[in-house]
Amino acid sequence: MGSVNHPLAGFCRDCLTLQHSAVRRCHACGSPRLLHHDELYSLSLAHIDCDAFYAAVEKRDNPDLRDKPLIIGGGKRGVVSTACYIARIHGVRSAMPMFKALEACPQAVVIKPDMEKYVRVGREIRQLMLELTPMVEPISIDEAFLDLKGTERLHRDPPARVLARFARRIEDEIGITISIGLSYCKFLAKVASDFEKPRGFSIIGEKEALSFLRDKSVTLIWGVGKAFAATLQADGIRTIGQLQEMEEAALMRVYGTMGQRLYRLSRGMDVRRVEPEGEMKSVSSETTFNTDLSSANDLVPILRSLSEKVSRRLKAGGIAGRTVVLKLKSQDFKSRTRNRQLSDPSQLADRIFRTGLQLLEKELDGTKFRLIGIGVSDLEDADKADPPDLVDNQATKRAVAEGAIDRLRTKYGNKAVETGYTFGTGRTERPPGNGKG
């Protein structure tokens, strides 16, 4: 291992052959994808991000789409969930309104999101991550932090090589690609993973952190969005290097606790650890309508359909939620969020729907809505979920019936059995473009 750990002993990301000099191509396979870095074998904290995840899964499942611009989204009033890199070359971006995306790339193929499939693939990738280390902190279904410190004896390789081998495994077994950022802290690992997408592997070491950050925009720092960046710019601060020249007390005096974050992250100081218990905080499903809706007749069937989607994800993941959350967005883009805590955690569509319905009924005041969503938070294992209701016998009967429906749908598909709420409906809704937990 001594030769491996020598800083000049880089390696090829494709065949993993050691490279004992700063050559441009692998002397074994000819690949230009080589890794060399002074801290290559001393860093162990990584951020892994799937490349254009939804689009990559669809291209994997339909090879005819491989060389075509692909947008995952739908409906003229919807937004882009994600776009493949071909579409991005034409200017398509995530969260862009669909009509603008199609103006930028009219030849694009548009596919509505299939969140159940994406969650399933994300879970497969998560399981492979856990084979590397138990220290996995998911951020969403397609990205996570990993801490591989102390795993060198287990894998008989330094973390950098373990991660490179993992990237190859994802391509071979899952059929999509990932990008990796390797550093000594979360902040810079996340920054590094965005560098060379797709199929990137970038490294930011501790020794270079200050110089690396110096000329970068303040927007690189977590929490500095457009509004706060404008505030900083008005105060004459545009680069991280300017923050590096300021005292912590002065920044806190002007910007409060955010000033402390600016001071620390501008210097590459981030002591947050990878927290494996930071699994999903919520499970939700939402949809944007093609036309604004205000009546119970229109909204209730959609609420039921979304509740069933959330329920399927909870059951598949073996989890349940104790708080039901309803989300509405009016035609003027103002959001309403309402929640109610349950007596016991639940994963039943019936219970999620009926609780959401009680919340929805209070909001039906004639307002026209362009979006509705339902979800659950305060997640826990499903072993204590949905005990028999000793007061409401009908609730228990509905739970039994739902179990029977689930078994039929597992065997014959989700449309094999429909409830009275959802039968023949769905023409006014667009399938959810945001099902992240």
TrEMBL record:
Q: Which part of the chain is the UmuC domain?
A: 45-225
The annotation note on the cofactor reads: Binds 2 magnesium ions per subunit.
Site feature: Substrate discrimination? Y54
Q: Which residues bind Mg(2+)?
A: D49, D142
> According to its UniProt record, which reaction does this protein catalyse?
DNA(n) + a 2'-deoxyribonucleoside 5'-triphosphate = DNA(n+1) + diphosphate
Keywords carried by this UniProt record: Cytoplasm, DNA damage, DNA repair, DNA replication, DNA-binding, DNA-directed DNA polymerase, Magnesium, Metal-binding, Mutator protein, Nucleotidyltransferase, Transferase
Q: What is its EC number?
A: 2.7.7.7
Magnesium as UniProt keyword = yes
Q: Provide the cofactor list for this protein.
A: Mg(2+)
List, in alphabetical order, the Gene Ontology terms for molecular function in this entry.
damaged DNA binding; DNA-directed DNA polymerase activity; magnesium ion binding
Q: Where in the cell is it found?
A: Cytoplasm
User: Its function?
Assistant: Poorly processive, error-prone DNA polymerase involved in untargeted mutagenesis. Copies undamaged DNA at stalled replication forks, which arise in vivo from mismatched or misaligned primer ends. These misaligned primers can be extended by PolIV. Exhibits no 3'-5' exonuclease (proofreading) activity. May be involved in translesional synthesis, in conjunction with the beta clamp from PolIII.
What's the name of the protein?
Answer: DNA polymerase IV
Species for this entry: Phyllobacterium phragmitis
